[in-house]
Design brief:
The chain is α/β, with parallel strands linked by helices. It has 15 helices and 16 strands. The protein is globular, with a radius of gyration of 20 Å. It starts with a strand and ends with a helix.
């Protein structure tokens, strides 16, 4: 049995979702592979998403950005934690490298998790970096706001450069000469649209709108405005502890019994934050996307450009989203036809590339 160590950034759920999609795709090709997952993302996420063999090991591999809200980062707190975390502790790197050697891991895959690259090098095994941006590139967007971050930018750039194999996934924020470039990598649908809608107790005739802010849930102040749209059902993952059915509103816990890509596929349109995993899932489902950019984040322009050229949808400002004044836009979105796609999933492309080119690992 071959074992692969997988190091995953815990920032939001986007990196965990992309990593899970790749692991599932690898398991479809070779079910005997066992993954040793190292991350601070919650273990339940992988239990819900993976059908193959894996073990979970809690490890804070990196930070990304500390979020005040899904749309606002906390730069001061980000710097405080970065100053504690980096440079990485040699003793910890050595201990985890010994651990993956003891587990007989032959390869390390890192989804924007720089610590994993150092650990793989120390363990003497090949490393694969999977990214659509790296943290040094993201932090460059904040360099004019606080010069302290420059030290972390330089350090992380050197760490990311040690990857043995470099894979980028569309939409790519900082294109480079890499070993392989894949399309958007998304978790695959598990249940058909009709099955999901029945489970949600929805009529087959009424439109369904999924409202999502990705891996950082929030309280919504516009709920009362949605009640006025009695012919439209709104499905909203939020901070509630149990599922709540309120007339045309279905509020779901952030960790619910519903598989998020299934909710995307069952929707007639998605209103949500323009983050990587949501974009990838909406892209493959082909549903219209009412997208809220994060203008302070450096990746926003790349993500928006991809949506505008490759996906049906309309932009919604954060202020318009938070106030709930997007009902007119919603009517336009619901009139946009769903796009039927016949393109490969980036997760399958990455899995095939890794197994075809690193099979001897």
């Amino acid at each position: 049995m071959r074992r692969i160590a997988y190091f995953i950034s815990p920032h939001g759920f986007g990196h965990a979702a992309r990593a899970a999609s790749v692991m599932e795709a690898i398991h479809e090709i070779d079910p005997s592979i066992r993954f040793e997952i190292f991350t601070a993302s919650p273990s339940w996420f992988f239990q819900d998403n993976l059908s193959g063999l894996f073990n979970y090991h809690y490890l804070l591999t990196d930070l990304g950005l500390v979020q005040k809200t899904p749309f606002e980062e906390d730069l001061a707190e980000t710097l405080r934690v970065l100053n504690q975390l980096m440079p990485y502790d040699d003793t910890q790197v050595g201990a985890v490298s010994q651990q993956i050697n003891d587990l007989n891991c032959r390869l390390a895959i890192c989804d924007v998790a720089p610590m994993g690259l150092l650990i793989a090098k120390e363990a003497g095994i090949p490393s694969v970096l999977v990214e659509n941006f790296t943290w040094d590139w993201i932090y460059e967007g904040y360099a004019d706001r606080d010069t302290q971050i420059a030290t972390h930018i330089d350090y992380l750039r050197r760490v990311f450069d040690i990857a043995d194999v470099h894979i980028q996934t569309e939409p790519v924020c900082n294109p480079k000469t890499v070993d392989f470039c894949a399309g958007p990598a998304s978790r695959k649908i598990k249940s058909p649209k009709a099955v999901v809608r029945r489970k949600l107790r929805l009529s087959s005739n009424n439109p369904m709108v999924l409202v999502t802010t990705g891996g950082v849930p929030q309280e919504y102040t516009f709920i009362d405005k949605l009640n006025t749209q009695t012919d439209i059902y709104f499905v909203i993952p939020c901070t509630c502890q149990t599922a709540q059915y309120r007339d045309n509103l279905i509020l779901l816990p952030h960790h619910s019994d519903f598989f998020h890509p299934d909710l995307v596929n069952a929707a007639d349109t998605v209103i949500g934050k323009a983050g990587y995993s949501t974009i990838a899932e909406v892209y493959h489902a082909g549903v219209p996307f009412g997208y809220i950019p994060c203008p302070n984040n450096r990746e926003a322009s790349t993500l928006v450009a991809f949506i505008e050229t490759e996906m049906p949808g309309l932009p919604i400002s954060e202020s318009t989203f938070q106030s709930g004044d997007w009902m007119e836009l919603l009517k336009r979105l619901l009139n946009i036809p769903r796009l039927e796609r016949d393109v490969p999933n980036g997760a399958d492309q990455i899995a095939e590339f890794i197994l075809n080119n690193l099979a001897s690992a």
